[in-house]
From TrEMBL:
It comes from Anser brachyrhynchus (Pink-footed goose). Belongs to the ATP-dependent AMP-binding enzyme family. It comes from the Eukaryota. It catalyses: tetracosanoate + ATP + CoA = tetracosanoyl-CoA + AMP + diphosphate; a very long-chain fatty acid + ATP + CoA = a very long-chain fatty acyl-CoA + AMP + diphosphate; a long-chain fatty acid + ATP + CoA = a long-chain fatty acyl-CoA + AMP + diphosphate. This is long-chain-fatty-acid--CoA ligase. The gene is SLC27A5. Keywords: Cell membrane, Fatty acid metabolism, Ligase, Lipid metabolism, Lipid transport, Membrane, Nucleotide-binding, Transmembrane, Transmembrane helix, Transport. One of its GO terms (biological process) is long-chain fatty acid import into cell. One of its GO terms (cellular component) is endoplasmic reticulum membrane.
Amino acid sequence: MLGVVTAAAAGLLLLLLLLRDRLFPFLWADLGAFVALAGASLRCRRRLSRRPAVTLLEVFQEHARRQPRRPLLLFQDKRHTYGDVEQLSSRAARVFSQRLGLQPGQTVAVFLPNEPTYVWTWLALAKLGCAMACLNYNVRGQALLHALAAARATFVLASTELQDALEEVLPDLQRDGIKVFYLSSTSPTPGVEALLPAIETASDEPLPGHYRAGITASSKAIYIYTSGTTGLPKAAVITEQKLMMVANLGRICGLRATDHIYTTLPLYHSAGLLIGVGGCLEVGATCVLRAKFSASQFWDDCRRYNVTVIQYVGELMRYLCNTPKRDNDQKHRVRLAVGNGLRAEVWKEFLQRFGPISIWEFYGATEGNAGFINYTGKIGAVGRANAFLKSFAPFELIKYNVEQDEPIRDERGFCIRVRPGETGLLVIKITKNTPFYGYAGDSKKTEKKILRDVLVKGDAFFNSGDLLMMDHEKFVYFQDRVGDTFRWKGENVATTEVEATLAMVNFIREVNVYGVSVPGCEGKCGMAAIRLKPGMSFEGENLYAFTRETLPSYAAPRFVRIQEALEITGTFKQCKGNLVREGFDPDIIKDPLFFRDEKMKSYVPMNADIYAAIQEAKLNL
């Protein structure tokens, strides 16, 4: 009898395991991801609840005490250990305090390229209880002045490499009482002091604790400017709590103390500074820093510095795949890649060419209050919407009217959830676990990112501005930015989908799809700016045939513009604003222009007659 019962119990257990694998195939992965996230959250809250608070700075200092000789930064031929950076940042903090008169709570802007100076300056400011505003080193003129005003920065610490940009606005800065200093040995600008000689001779003794006595979880630590493709930059507020949570992303993805993480992304952006450098400060790892991304030198650097983890954005991976193939493409020690924006076709090509690297794609905005992590390696997905994580960070995908640029609401005035397989606007509930801190100095733009009365009266959600789709297995996929999606012939056209399709054309190296206004037509008409592969020419008939086979008629671009280089931001986001404004007027655009001619079944050269016919509504689009 006992044997029968035992056999029945074993059979039942086997059946439950089989049903689990069939009905809940991702149960353990989902649970593991939740435990990792919840553990990181508890760790951060426990640290920050102490008095005085234990912030990322104190975590770094503990690593510096325990492992002073371990390299923190590898840059060109220089090696900076944890002990080196701890001492140098203390010297800098002392000079900033004594020579500049910095006080806790003040904001200091850094205008620096990717170099070790950026890191020890950040830590020096943190030791004084000052917030750091991370200026994009590509910003000039009024945009630069706007960025400083948004964060209410009273000091600028700059590099002599950016002398021209600085001197262009220096009279305005002096008028506004903003003091400027170079972090260099000498100054090429009259009236601007060079601080490096004083820093090199200053004491490296630890600073008094009173500078950070008032630091809490909600203290402002950093301002990072949205790298948006249009408009003036907005200064996203990064608190000590958010800084520590983002720095823990690397740990969640598997970053270890023994790793060397290769960061070619700009440090003025959250990915490079908070995830790359911040991740190293969190776990005690080494950051291999490069001034600027180089596709041709990328893998040579990985071999030279024994890189085990790389950071990416989607376009960076595509650039790597576009380099000439080498026999040693898979001869490296890289085991893990962490980043965002990787398209499925590039993802597959990257793995096939460079080997079985574990890719952890994530989704999140600098100013956002939550995000996703693709912890299963599902190609093309940005994450999974499992029940455990959703209880921690509630979110919804809601119906969105692209033409009117607003959510669709029901008769009660509430937003409508989309079904699996449908594209919807991602909104994330603002809660104690997922707060939204907004933008410095711009309450109107902060309020604009909050969507209220979404599901019930009085609730509040962060409006991501992104359109996502969740499939029946609860994998989540990025579709497009709200401003990039346009409506044509009564249909929504997702620019990223069209770009991914056109990227498969053999003569196209890069492509940027956008919508342009056409007189007398509702919505916007599709247009593509493309960069040709070296040595190849534009083939109008072949492109027409390809788009006819692969794209719905409403999504196929009506106009094509050939450019020698596509305009991008420092984090490889494509800029569309100028392209949209210039439209398809051959008198304005000097680049080669082509029109999709249905009669000729080809993309034919654009001329004044075709343009006039479109303007007069004599040519049917």
